[in-house]
Design brief:
With 265 residues, this protein is mainly α. The chain has 2 domains: 175 residues, Serine Threonine Protein Phosphatase 5, Tetratricopeptide repeat (Alpha Horseshoe); 86 residues, Serine Threonine Protein Phosphatase 5, Tetratricopeptide repeat. About 6% of the residues have low confidence.
Length: 265
Amino acid sequence: MKYHRFFLMLLLTPLLLAGCQGQSVRSPSAKSHAPEVPAKNRESADANVQLGMAYLQNGELAVALEKLQKAIKYNPYSSSAHSALGMLYQQTGELDLAEEHFRTSLKYDFNQGELHNAYGSFLCSQKRYTEAEKEMLIAAGNPYYKTPEIALTNLGICMRQSGDAKKSEDYIRQALDKNPMYSQALFQMANLFLGRQEYAKAELYYQRYQGKATLSAENLWLEYRIQAGLGDNRKAQIAGKSLLENFPDSRQALDYRERMLDEKK
């Protein structure tokens, strides 16, 4: 499974929410080297960051870049604008620029959990697993970071990519300890047990996840494989049919068709 897009979805949501609510709470000992800028400039920068993040989430990269560059023009010390630019350049494959902006975001606001989470996810995408783990643990351990379960889930995904299945499970369980109903952690646990062919456990986590999930190709493909593993052909066929009907051009639909052909041989 390719996790790049999944990481981006996990990262964007808390940053969008944080921006909507204004600056998130910082520790009194926050390490920040950002000079003061006029309030009007900060407000204009924050507004453009929000627009840029929304366009980035929708895949409109050119417009997102325009808004985020405008945010930097209003406030060159905006940590959220630099972090968002890091994610954008990560998307476009301009990795040196991405890392430069992630590092700048931390230079101007070291104590923001969201920023460490974003940089850690970038490092993981570059297979720099030890550095990634350090950044995400900083995020998860920050008492002022309101969504540590996101960083811990990202870390679980990262450790799975690194080949460390034990750490992957440990971190995702920690995410669920923080928030037992966090949907993406439930999804990852279901995937983890599916990979071990422990289908009954996978189904338990998937059932918990399903109540929080929206219909997607990823969800239906997961459900199909769990039900097929359990030997429930009726439920598996229902999931497969729904996958073909709702997401006929998805990679998961292609995988499903290939599996059906293999079974007919």
